Structures are given as structure tokens and as C-alpha cells.
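Work Package 3 (structural annotation) set out to generate three-dimensional models for the target panel prioritized at the project kickoff. During this period the team completed the workflow that converts sequence records into C-alpha cells, so that structures can be stored uniformly alongside our sequence database. As a representative example, we reproduce one entry of 271 residues exactly as it appears in the project archive.
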Amino acid sequence: MTQAPSTDIKDPDAAPLLVGRDGAIATVVLNRPAKLNAFTLQMWQQLGDAFRQLSDDTSVRCVLIRGAGERAFSPGNDISEFAVARSNKAQAIAYGKVMHGTAQAILDCPHPVVAQIHGICVGGGLEVAAMADIRICGQGSRFGAPIKNLGLVMAYQEMAPLIRLVGESRTLEILLEGRIFGADEAHGMGLVSRVVPDDQVAAEARATAERIASGAPLVAHWHKKFARKLVAGDALTARDLEEGFDCFDTEDFQTGFKAFLAKETPRFSGH
């Protein structure tokens, strides 16, 4: 069994990405509060590495992702880095390779992912949040992708999660207008799952992660897999349809229904 990335960092305030564990729940923190947790190329690489390691860790049952502090989830990429890391097409392709590899790592994570959104969630921050399975934000959170003002295009790999979440029309509204909009509008368009008072975001996200972690982990993995297959629209094979019954041969099924009959709390092993 592999373990989550180490959090034994001598100077955690200087680390752009932190990964912690509390039981079966892993927390990934975008850690540049002085820059509102804006992404650098290094952060994109570290975020991808973290999700790849967490995906391989069978003891993880839920991943929380958040920005450090309560001012922002992330405003997207650090524009000050563009002059040296993203100033032309060749550099942008290299940058995009890292960024899109990380996006795929998040999307491929078999564990449920919950985005804990405080404050600003814009541009690349919005893209990362859209890759989560559940998004919880505060009433004061703000969303948008005003990249038209930078002369930037949202690439296919970045746009796909938004299209899946809110559809073509809403995605184009977000990109073509470039407006910054509030939590209630984001909830109305399906961009976020839940809006709570700003001072309750952390508690609600944690409670959500705990509810997820208390369930049978194989079932959570199957539900994520099935949902993605259905959204992709690919024809389901006979094996795909049969897989919907594989849960009946698991130890967790035996644990679950016996605990229900005994009026006990099930303790799932993930087998």
C-alpha cells in the first residue's frame, strides 16, 4: 500500500503545495496565500504528482482540495510568471503539457474529490474546482474566467470539465463575457454543489468528506467510473453492464447489509 505524499516540510509556509492526512481523508492545499494561491508551473507539477500518489493510495477515501487562507481558492495562473514561462507558443505548449497532465491526474483520481472554496475561484482555479466531484463554497465566493482580457484561450482539456458541468451555453457565457459572478449565480448554473455562509465552508466541506469516507470505498470508485462513462456517451459493453453487479461479490457488501440488519454502523475494508 502506498502512502500519501509526505507533509514533513521544514518550512511549510514556503511550500507552494501541502498534502496532509487525517485518517482516510487527504487534504491538498494550494499554498501561496500572499498571491491568493495563484498557480505557478511548479505548483501545477506538484499538484499532479500529489494526485497521482493519492490515487495509488488505497487507504484514502476522500480528497479535499482548498486554497490556503480564506481569501481565495485560486485566481488562476500567476501572470507574473508568463514573461519567462509562457511568453510564446513553444513555451505555452510545454506549460500546457504539465497543466493538462495535472488536470488528467485529478480527473483520473478514483477517490471522491471535494473542492472547499473560499473567496476567489477564477480562471485556472475555476478549472481545478470543476474537476472535483463536489464543490462547496461560501456566500461571498466569486467565480469567472476573464481570460479574454489576456488574449488567452481555454484549451480543450481545460474547457471539457466546465462543459460537462454546466453545458456549452453556460461555458461560452462564462468565457465570452468574462464576468465575475457570485455564489448564488454559480449555484444556479450548476457550477457549485452547495453554498453555505462563509464561516461554515470548512466545516461543511469536512462533514461532506466524512460522509463520503464512511461509505464503501469500492462503491465510490464505481460510482465515479460509471458517471464518467455515461457522460462520455460511449456505448456500454456487456462487461460494462455486468460490472454494475460486481459489488455483490465484495466483502463490503456482506459487511454493509449485515450491519444494516443488525442496526450497527458498518466498518468497510475496501475489499
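The chain has two domains: 12-213, 217-261.
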